[in-house]
Write a structure and sequence with these properties.
The complex is a heterodimer of chains A (about 110) and B (about 120). Chain A has about 110 residues and is mainly β. Helices cover about 0% and strands about 55% of the residues of chain A. Chain A has one domain: Immunoglobulin-like (Sandwich).
């Protein structure tokens, strides 16, 4: 069975400080990976997706970047946090890029920027 | 442009009641519709998905949803709710395009189940 792990569970960071959030998928080779952001009490918005190692596509620009250094790892980062970055960050995976494939989500990382 | 509309922000029912959470979509191409559940402070759990065939889809924990092309709807139903069903429910439409396998979510419906 596939498992998806996100770290850290939660972060409190200062405006202007750097950020790195991680996501690891176990039990599935070459998954398609996604980052979503959810404002408090709001809906989800896809930020990035990756089909393979070293390849990342940006869907929405929020002064964030993403990288895929390993087949099973997806990293979300920024050098300077903004207040608007606060929220819930969810990583997801699917077997392929096709619309009929289900996306499965991780437990999420809650971020508060002060 | 794909859109997903969940007209009810908050639905309150009693334990044992039936419930229907509404979802309407607009999209011109091949469409795949899903429902996810999010308990407070947690990630999303997949409930069910429609992409072809029988318009009534069975999901986990007694949930089912019915796809209607004529009404552009994909409403979620449960015959008898339990207090543990209290959560936010998101309807989503997915497609393949320039953004890969992109999920467009509705704003969510908060279901509160009273004892």
């Amino acid at each position: 069975a596939q498992t998806i792990h996100q770290w850290p569970v939660a972060e409190i960071k200062a405006v202007g400080s750097p950020l790195s959030l991680g996501c690891t998928i176990k039990g599935k080779s070459s998954p398609n990976l996604y980052w979503y952001w959810q404002a408090t009490g709001g809906t989800l918005q896809q930020l990035f997706y990756s089909i393979t190692v070293g390849q990342v596509e940006s869907v929405v620009q929020l002064n964030l970047s993403a990288s895929r250094p390993k087949d099973d790892q997806f990293i979300l980062s920024t050098e300077k946090l903004l207040l608007s970055h606060s929220g819930f960050y969810l990583c997801a995976w699917s077997p392929s890029v096709w619309g009929e494939d289900t996306q499965y989500f991780g437990p999420g990382t809650r971020l508060l920027v002060l | 442009t794909q859109t997903v509309s969940q007209s009810d922000a908050h639905v309150t029912v009693f334990e044992g009641d039936s419930v229907e959470l509404r979802c309407n979509y607009s999209y011109g191409g091949s469409i795949y519709l899903s429902w996810y559940i999010q308990h407070h402070g947690h990630g999303l759990q997949f409930l069910l998905k429609y992409y072809s065939g029988n318009p009534v889809v069975q999901g986990v924990n007694g949930f089912e949803a019915e796809f209607s092309k004529s009404d552009s709807s994909f409403h979620l139903r449960k015959a008898s709710v339990h207090w543990s069903d209290s959560a936010v429910y998101f309807c989503a439409v997915s497609s393949y395009g320039s953004s890969g396998n992109k999920l467009i979510f509705g704003i969510g419906t908060l279901l509160s189940v009273k004892p």
